[in-house]
Fold these 3 entries.
Entry 1:
Amino acid sequence: MLYVKDHLTNQFISSHEREQMTCQLSAARDLLDSRACPGSEYTGWLDLPMTFPEELIERIEETAGRIRRDYDVLIVVGIGGSYLGARAVIEALSHHFSMLLPAGERGCPLVLFAGHQISSDYLHDLIDVVKGKRVALNVISKSGTTTEPAIAFRVLRDTLFRDAEREELAKHIVITTDEKRGALRRYADEMGITTFVIPDDIGGRYSVLTPVGLLPIAVAGFEIRELLEGARAERERSMAPLSEGFSAADRYAVNRMILMRKGFQAEILACYEPSMRYFAEWWKQLFGESEGKDGKGLITMSVDLTTDLHSLGQLIQEGPRVFFETVIDFASVKHEIMIPGDPADLDQLEYLAGKPMSFVNRQASRGTALAHVSGGVPNIRIELPDRSLKSLGALIYFFERACALSCIMNGVNPFDQPGVEAYKRNMFALLGKAGFEEMREELLRSSSEDGE
Ligand code: PA5
C-alpha cells in the first residue's frame, strides 16, 4: 500500500489551506474522471490497469519469451516517453551490476537503450559491446518519425543486420508504434515485422503500462501482471469518493499545488536507493512535460541520497528557498547487510556494529528530512512497503494521476507538449529537411549575427 505522509509540510501548510483546496480538487477529479478535462482524448491510461486485454498480455509474454530464448541482448530504441518508463522499472528492479553478471546467472537478455540522444560515440560503443552477441531490437515510437530513434534504428539495422535476408531481419525486430500512421508502421507492414500498438488515447509519458514499457520489462525477466496489479490496486484507492477523504494522489497533488502557489519553484524527487535514478528521470519527464507550459509549472529535479548530500546538500539546506522535496521511501530492502564489529575501532564506527545498513540509511533519511525542514524545505514522503513490481505499479499510477490532477488544478493541459516541437523545427531547418527552407535562412541569419 502506498501512503503520502505530509506532516513534514505542516509548518509550511496549515490544515485549513488543505481543506480549502477540496473544491478545486473535487472539480479536477470530476473533469479527469468524466474525461472532460483539456486533452481528454489522452486519458486512456486512467482505466488501462482494469481493462488491459488478457490476449495482449499473453502476446507480450509470448514475444518476450521468444526474445529471452533466442537473444543475448535487447536494444530498446526510443526517446522520452518511449523509453523512460521501461528503463525506470528495469533499473529499479534489476541487479545493480546486471551487465557484469554471466548470462546464465542473469537468466534473461541484457536490456540496453539507444535512440535517446544523437551521440555517435554512444552508438559506436554500444555496437562495439554487442558484437558477436545475438541482438534483438525493440523500436518504439508513437509518431514513428522522431529523429533520434530513427537515426539509431537505421544505424543499428545497417550495422548489425546488413546481410540478413528479409525474413531473418523481421525476426530480430519488434516495432511498437501507432496502429495505422507513421513511417515505422509502413516499414513494419512492408517487412512483415511483429508489432505492438501504442493506443491512440495514451500519450508517450503515460504509456509505461502499455506494450511500450511492458515488452522490455517482460524481456528483462519481470512479471508484468504484478506491475499491472499494483497499478490496479492504486487506481481503486485513488478513485474512492472524495467524501472518504483525500487519496494518496489527491494529497500529493494538493500539497504540491499549495507549495507552488506559495512561491516554491522547484520540486526535488529524492530516493535513498540508487536503482531509482531512472524512475526519477521518468518522473521528471512526466511532471515537467505535463505541467511546464503557459509560463507555469514546477521545475523538476532529482537527487540520489545520500550520494548527492555531498554535492547538492549545501544548496538544498541553505541556497535559495525555492525548493521542496518529495522523498520515495521503501520500508524494506531486498538484501540486508549487518555492519561488522571491529574492536580496534579506528574508524570510530563501533557504535554501529551489528546494526543493519538499512537502519543507518533510514536514520540518514530522517535526519536529512528534519534538517531540510528546519532549513525551510518542506518534505513530502511517499511510503511504500518494498521495491517490488506491485509497489512500482502503484507508484506509476499514483504519479500519473497526481500529475494529471495537478495540471488540471493549475489550468494546463496535462497531455500535450507543444514546446517540444520548437527544437525539432529548428533542427530540421538546420539539417536542410525539405519544407523548412525559409526557416533555415532565418536561423542562419540569426546565428551568423551571434557570431557562429
Ligand atoms: O511524452 C511524450 O509524448 C514524448 O516524450 C514522446 O514520448 C517522445 O517525444 C517520443 O515520441 P515518439 O514516441 O513519437 O517517438
Note: The domain at 3-36+228-409 is CATH 3.40.50.10490 (Rossmann fold).
Entry 2:
Amino acid sequence: MNHWFSVAVQTPAHSSLGGLLTYRSDQPLAPGTLVRAPLGTREVLGVIWAATPGPGTDMAPESVRPLAGALEGLSPLSDGWRQLVDFAAAYYQRAIGEVALAALPPQLRELGAAQLARRLRRTAAPAGDTAADVGAGPENHPDFVALTDEQTMALAEIESKSGPFLLYGSTGSGKTEVYLQAVARVLDADPCAQALVMVPEINLTPQLEARFRARFAGRWGDGAVVSLHSGMTNPQRLRSWLAAHSGAARIVLGTRMAVFASMPGLKLIVVDEEHDPSYKQQEGARYSARDLAVYRGRLEAARVVLGSATPSLESWHRSQPPPSAGDPAPALPLPPPAGAGRYQRLTMAGRIGAGAFAQVRRVDMNHQPAKTVFSPPLLDAIRTRIARGEQAMVFLNRRGYAPVLHCADCGWKSECPHCSAFRVFHKIDRTLRCHHCGFTERVPRACPACGNLDIAPLGRGTERLEEHLAELLEGTTRPDGSPVRLLRIDADTTRLKGALAQQLAQVHSGDVDVLVGTQMIAKGHDFRRITLVAAVNPDGALFSADFRAPERLFSLLMQAAGRAGRDAAYVAAGASEPEMWIQTFHPAHPLFVALKAHDYPAFAARALHERAQAAMPPFSFQALVRAEARTQQAAQDFLNAVRDAAVATDDCELAAWAPRVTLYGAVPMSVQRVANVERAQMLVESESRTALQRFLAAWQPALRDIRSRGAHKGLIRWAIDVDPLTI
Ligand code: ADP
Ligand code: ZN
Ligand code: ZN
C-alpha cells in the first residue's frame, strides 16, 4: 500500500514549488521524519512535512517517486520545529525546503546510514554522570552568588510572568548572572527541559561557554552544554545538533543559526545583546534570529529573555510601559505605539563589581589644527595611562592602512576594476585589496595612469592609526622604563585560527599598553586594566544615509565605554578613573550629549520621536527587493517592471493589498557594483506588518513570472529582504 507525503527538500531558490515535493512510500512515516528522497539523478535529504491523501490531482500516481527510506535512529523533528520553519519561510519570503534544509547540520546530508548510526551511538552515550548534586537548587551550588535586589526582581518576574522580557541593564549590571540563574531554575524544575542561549558573535561564544560550563558541567555533566555556530567543523556541528535533538544537551549556546536548533524540551530562550545586527542573516533567507526567537518562544511556550544595555529601538519601543493615569506628559510625545507593551521591560540600573561609569570627554576637533588625528589632550591622557601601567584602547571603524591610494598629479585613485569602490591600501604586505570582491594586487610602484612615482595614501585605517600612534608615543615608557607596547586587533590581524584568542591573552596579561582596533575590540571582552577608551573619528555615522547608523553608533560607544574601568577593585586600588574620549566636530550633537549622561532612554526617546515623525521603523514596516544584473539598467528595469505589475494586476489578493503599501522607485545600491555585478534595490513600505506580508506573498508569483518570461535578460538574481537592517 502506498502512503503519500509532501516532503521538504532543497530546491532552487524561487522555484514555485515552495520546496515541498510529493513522494510515496510503502511505510507510514510521521511528519518531521528525516528521509532520503530521490531528486533528479541524486538522492537528497528531506523532511516529511505532511501526509497527503493522494498524489495530487495534477500528478499521475506512477510519476510520483518513492522515498529511499528514513534516516534510522533519529526521532522526527517536532511540530514546533516545522511550524517555526513554516513561519520563517513565509515571513522572509523563501521556500520551506530551503529554510528547513539550511537549518539542519550539513553532515546529515552527507553521511551514509552506517556512518550516521555510528554518530548516534556516540551521542547516545550518557553525558557523563559526574553530577554529584543532581537536584540541588542553585543556592546550594558552590558558585552561588548573592543576587542584587535588581537581579532578584528580574528573576522573579521571569519565573512568574510569561514575557517576552527585555532585560535592560548596562554592561556589568549582572545580566549574564540572571541568564545563568534563569537557566538553572528552568532546568532544575524539569529534568527534560532545555535552554537556548544566543550571542551575536562566534568570538564571544568561548567566553560564554566557559562561564556556562563552569556553572553547569558539575551538575549535569560535561555533555550538558553544547555550542552551535558556523565556526565549528561539520562533525562538531552534527555532534552538537544530535545532542540537542536527542535532549542529551540541556543547554545550547550559539549564534543566530542556533535559533533553528531542534530542542524537544525547549523551555527558555535567551538572546544576549539583542540589538546586535549580527542576528540578521545576510544571505539566503534573511531572517532575524532575535525575532524568530520571540516567535519560537510563543510557539513552544518557552520563556524568552532579550538582553541589552542599548536595546534595539524596535525592542525598546515594544517594551514601552503602558502609560498610567498619573504619568506626566512625556517630553517627546509618540504616537500610540503599535505593538508597544508586548514585551515586559526589566531594568537593572546598577553596575556590580565595576567602578563608576566611564566619564565621557568630548574633544572639539574644530579647535584643533587641521588634520589632527590625536588631539594633544587625548594623547596626554594616553601617555598618563601608560606611565601608570594602565591600558588604553583606541578604535576606528576602518581597517587597512588607508581607504584610498591617490596620485596628486593626475587624480588617479585606487578604484577596484570590478566594483564601484576603492581598493584599500594594506601597507603590511603592500597590497591594494577590495573589501567587497576580494580583488588584490601589489601596490604599483608608480601611478598606473601617469607614471608619477609619488602616489600617496588618503585617509586612515587602523593600520595607519597604529603606525601614527607609535610615532607619537615614541619615547614614552612604562613604569619599569621599558618602551610602550601597541597591539592592533582587527579582521586583518585575526584571520588565522586562534589569532584573536592569542592577541586577547596578550591584552589580559598586561603585555600590551595600547590596543588599537576596529569595533571588534569594543564588544564584550572583559578587559580588567583598561581605564581609557577613545573613539578617534566617530562622526561619519551621525550623518549617514542609513537611518540606523546613529543607533548603531550609540550602542557601540556605550559598549566601548563599558570596556573602561570594569574592575572596581582595580580602580579603587589607585588606578585612574575610567574615561571615554570622543573626538568630534559635533560635540553638542544630542547623541554625544546622551552618551555623556549614559542616558540610553534619552537617546531612544529622541530617536523614536524622529522615527515616528518620518514614519520609519518601528512605526512602519519595510522590505527591500534587490536585483543583481549585468547592467544597472537591467537591474532597475526588472524592479520597475515588478512594481508596475503590482499596480496593474488582475490578481485579487495583490490588488487588495497593493494600495496599503508604498512602492518606491528602483535605485542603485550604495555600493552599486560588486565583482562586476550591478545591484539595485527597491523599498516597499507599509504602516501595517500584515499588509506588507500579504502583499509580498501575493507579489512573489509576479516576480517569478516576470523573471521567467525572459524579457529581463541581463538579470542574474533577485531576492526579498524583509525588515532589512541597512537600506
Ligand atoms: P553583564 O552580563 O550585565 O555585563 P555580568 O553578569 O557579566 O554582567 O556581571 C558583571 C560582573 O559582576 C561579573 O564579573 C559577575 O561575575 C559579577 N556579578 C554578577 N552578579 C553578581 C552578584 N550578584 N554578586 C557579585 N558579583 C556579581
Ligand atoms: Zn597619476
Ligand atoms: Zn572589488
Note: Residues 126-136 have pLDDT under 50 and may be disordered.
Entry 3:
Amino acid sequence: MAAKLLEGKAIAEKLKAVVRQEVDLLRAKQNRAPKLIALQIGENASSAVYVKAQRKVAESLGIEYWLETLPDTISQAEAEQKISDFNKDHSITAIIVQLPVPKGIDAKKLANTIWPAKDAEGMHPQNLGRILLGNYKIGPCTAMAVMELLESTGEKLYGKEAVIVGHSEIVGKPLALMLLNKLATTTVCHIATGERGVLADHVKRAEILVVAVGKAGIIKGDWVKPGAVVVDVGINRVGDKIVGDVEFEAASQRASYITPVPGGVGPITTTILMRNTVELFKISF
Ligand code: NAP
C-alpha cells in the first residue's frame, strides 16, 4: 500500500483562514487586535529564524507581533521582572519566550512566570492541567498540530490503538492526554521501553503512531502496522538532508497516511501559536 501524504502546509492554510476570519471579527468588535510579544534573550541564529517565521504568519493574520530582545548578560530575576511587566501591560495579550536562552537562564522557570491567560505556548501548568480535564482551547503547539494532522484524515480515534514514542513535556505527554480525551487506547513509549527491547512490540500494534524522539530511523518501516496512520514529529539532520524518526520509504509502503519530514508537523505549529494567541485574546476582555 502506498500511503497518502499528510502535508502540513495545506492544513496550516485552512487553519489560517479560520484564524484570520476570527481576528477580523474580533477587531471589528473590540477595535483592537491580539498582540503577541516574543521575548528573546541574546542574539541566536535559530531563534532569529523562528522569530522571522512567527512575525510573517502573525502579520498575515492581522495579529500584532512585537520582538523584545534583552542582552545575554541579563539575570534570571531581571528577565522574570520583564515578564511580570508584560503580564500587567493590558496592550499585550500573549507572550512567548524564544528558545534557546543563554546558559544561566532557567527557560522553564521563566516561561512559568507568564500568566496562564497570556501563555501563547500553552505550557503553563494551569493550561496543561486543563488538557488533563479535557477542557481546553489552547495547548502546546506541536501536540495540537499532531491532533490537527490526525483529524484531517477523517479517521476516528475512538477506541483505536494509539502509540506515542517519546514522552517529552512539549509533545508526548500532552498528546497522550489529548488522545485519551478522544478515547483512543493510548500507550506512551520512552527510553525505558527502548531499553527493555519492547519498542517494536508496541509500535507493531499501533493503528495511530506518533513518533517524537529525535533519532533518525529509530522506527523501522516493517514495524508499521498495515493501514496505520503515521505522524513523524522527529527532525534529524543526516548529511545534508533533514529526515524524521521513521524509515519513511518502507513505512509508506505499509501506512495508510504518513507525514513527510520536513513538511508534516512543522508548517502547522506556528499557526497553532497564532490560534492560541487569538484564544487568549478572547478571554482578555
Ligand atoms: P525530547 O525532549 O528530547 O524527547 C525525546 C523523547 O524520546 C524522550 O521522551 C525520550 O525518553 C524518548 N526516547 C529517547 N530515546 C528513545 C528510545 N530509544 N526509545 C524510545 N523513546 C526514546 O525531544 P522533543 O522536544 O519531544 O522532540 C522530539 C523530536 O521532535 C526532535 O527531533 C525535535 O526536533 C522534533 N520536534 C519537531 C517539532 C516540529 O515542529 N516538527 C516540534 C518539536 C519537536 P527519555 O526522556 O525517557 O529519555
Note: The chain has a mean pLDDT of 97.
